[in-house]
Amino acid sequence: MPSQQLSALLAALLVIPQATAQARPQPAAATALRQQSLEFGTAWYPEQWPESRWETDLQMMQDAHMNVVRIAEFAWSTMEPSEGRFEFVWLDRAIALAAKHNMKVVLGTPTAAPPAWLTTKYPDTLRVDENGTRAEHGNRQHFSFTSPTYRRFAIRIAEQMAKHYGHNPNILGWQIDNELAAPSFDPSTRTAWHAWLRHHYGTVAELNRKWATAYWSEAYDTFDEVPMHSTHEHPALLLDWKRFVTDTWIDYVGVQVAVIRSNSAPAQWITTNTMHWFQGFDHYKLHVNLDLAAWDDYYQEGHLDVVRNMVQHDLVRGFKQQNFWVMETQPGFVNWGNVNAMLPPGVVREMAWQAVGHGADAVLYWQWRPAPNGQEEYHGSLLGGDGKPVPVLKEVARTGDEFARAADALRGTEVHADIAILQDYDSHWAVTFQPQTIKYDYETEITNLYRAFGMARPIDLIAPTADLSHYRVVFAPGLNVLPDALAQHLLDYVRNGGTLVLGARSGMKDVDNALQTGGQPGSLLIAALGARVAQYYALDKPQPMLPAGAATAWAEQLETLDAGTRVLMTYGKGNGWLDGAPAAVEHSVGKGHLIYLGATLDAAGMQAFLQAAKLPLPEPLLASIPADVEVMERTSPQHHVWIIENHGQEPRHVDLAQPANNLLASQPTAVKSIDLEPHGVAVLEVVK
Ligand code: GAL
Fold first, then answer.
1. Is the peptide bond before 187 cis (omega within 30 degrees of 0)?
2. Which of 184, 201, 257, 357 is most exposed, with the fewest beta carbons within 10 Å of its own?
3. For residues 594-633, b (16+ Cβ closer than 10 Å) or e, as one string?
4. How many CB atoms lie within 10 A of CB 101?
């Protein structure tokens, strides 16, 4: 293809924001999702096994109370064994057999694993890494996400599948690709990158102005001179690279979504499976054009980090601000950690119910049975290589039985939170490109807030641009990139009665990752707060805080500019510059309160801050619960369902505020208190 044609194609493919195409789930898909109760199942790879074995497997799944299988996401070479020859008869039979066993199906498009005939005949489809090395066949994710040839084949297989299965009543929905991850640095990406920059900036002079390229003589004469880099570059380039990669993935997914939507029944929803905090693209933007968020929940060292898992579930729930799926989780252990230890007995069940408590409507294990050969022979599974159950299958089957019992009560319920924490990709990226200290970690700051709020208050973890109007309290730790439009949105929330806490490192950068010329946290917020950040300090030692606690990694010396600004906390004696300076300040704005907290705090410091700030926090769902017990709530207009878990190693007794119906008892019974064994779970229904 002549290069001009190629660039026109890429420009057409990549620079038109696809996200607006289907900004909301199609109504029928949304209804289908709401009507779902609890799905329970596994990844299954019929293409890896003789057909004579399929029924045995499906019967065993059914015996384990499973009702859904995800299939086909790596089966391209079986569905299209040679170019343009499609073979779906085997898949028809697998889906029909699944239906016979009351198992619904999620179909994956197989584009994470192109067949050898494709990459051999069209080597331009192969991914090139940042060092310029082209991938070879024999692994997965070895495709270029911008290759026009690859797009053609990806669209065609997705379209063929949709034409074939788009009206099959046993197909619940679609998963596009699998764990979108690695961008490519091949020539077609370079062309697309330059087209993206041209579209974004119009003229190279504008790019030079925004990026301030007089610095180090970095000025560009043409867009084509701008290199492709993902680390160790100019911060504006790095941020734009992430935005470009995001738009490219949106487009990559979008073209598959388009052919599936136009060839399928509206009730079939579309998702992709993501990896919690993965920083490769902006997940909020990617999910605009998807009906459902889904993620893969793994703990490689065999120790569940309960709070981290809460945060990750809430993060994924926030992608679309609706219930989500756990598309994959480990039946005990994985094969890609340093020591792939097994989760202790009870924890697989504990994890499944914790997911539901945070808004999951499905939990699927990866995988049913290890492939007879291949890279993942050692991964945990529910059957062994011999096709016989492994010990954890009993625990999984018990969980499946419980899901079936609680399904009706959970149908149509959602998590409702009065507290929001804002999470922002631009900001996360910006502080990662220029960390200034290895002690500051964006995810840890968010996780520490969760720890401070305890395990009995629902929290939403959402994008800063989301509607904030119904939250009592909004926290924005490290909202580093804070352009005026966003500041205005936050101030509107506060003026209307909200309480906003901006955490350390907030408002330092504008949309181009440049320092705010009006100072930190930006002129609009400085005016509203009556205070500014006079200087920031990366701490090599903790800085004592008054009245209590210590600043850990980062401390900002605040300066008040207005008589109405109230100082909530100050620094004690430490690095000298900070000693005695304001560390947290508050100002009323309209009907609400704007607070700036300039330090990352240890647990004691955070409790002191919460007291000093007198935040209108909601009461915990249950008062006086043991520290290792988590209380989760899902609600519908008619009732609440509480999921209570003992994450500790000792038995725990929990008194309930009102009698509740124990949904996991063999006969639903009213209870006023519950006793939980270590890793124990109770699921209770409270009628309003
Ligand atoms: C996921 C992937 C699965 C499987 C699993 C093993 O990242 O989507 O295909 O490889 O990891 O833990």
1. no
2. 201
3. bbbbbbbbbeebbebbbebbebebeeebbeebeebbbbbb
4. 18
**Amino acid (1-letter code) at residue 478:** G
- The 10s digit of each residue's pLDDT in 300-328 is 888 999 999 999 999 999 999 999 999 99
Question: Rounded to whole angstroms, how far apart are CA atoms 280 and 287?
Answer: 14
The pTM of the whole model exceeds 0.90: yes
Q: Residue 670, class by beta-carbon neighbours within 10 Å (0-12 exposed, 13-18 middle, 19+ buried)?
A: exposed
Quote the CA–CA distance of 128 and 135 in Å, as a whole number. Answer: 6
Tell me how far apart the alpha carbons of residues 437 and 435 are, in angstroms, rounded to a whole number. Answer: 5
Distance CA 411, CA 39 (A): 11
Q: Residue 20 pLDDT more than 70?
A: no
Phi, psi of 509 (to 5 degrees): -120, 155
- Report the relative pairing of strands 582-589 and 566-571 from DSSP bridges: antiparallel
Residues 6+ apart with CB under 8 A from 220: 204, 207, 208, 213, 226
Q: Which protein residues touch ligand 1 with a CB less than 6 Å away?
A: 178-179, 296, 298, 328, 334, 366, 376, 379
- Please state, in angstroms and rounded to a whole number, the distance separating the CA atoms of residues 626 and 622: 10
Among 179, 277, 301, 330, residue to substitute to test ligand 1 (most atoms within 8 Å of Cβ): 179
> How close is the Cα of 176 to the center of ligand 1, in Å?
15
Active site residues: 179, 328
- The helix (H) or strand (E) run that includes residue 248 is helix 235-261
Atom of ligand 1 at shortest distance to CA of 179?
A: 8
Tokens found for residue 154: 């990806």
User: Which residue's entry shows tokens 């996991």?
Assistant: 664
CA dihedral 499, 504, 508, 509 (to 10 degrees): -80
**Which amino acid is it at 520?**
Q
Return the residue whose CA atom lies nearest to atom 12 of ligand 1: 334
In whole numbers, what is the pLDDT of the chain averaged over residues? 95
Give the residue carrying structure tokens 């917020």: 525
- Say yes or no to pLDDT of 228 above 60: yes
Task: DSSP letter for 46, please.
Answer: G
Give CA–CA dist 391/186, Å, rounded: 46
Q: What is the mean pLDDT of residues 94-123?
A: 98
Q: Which residue has the tokens 């089966």?
A: 75
CA distance 353 to 356: 5
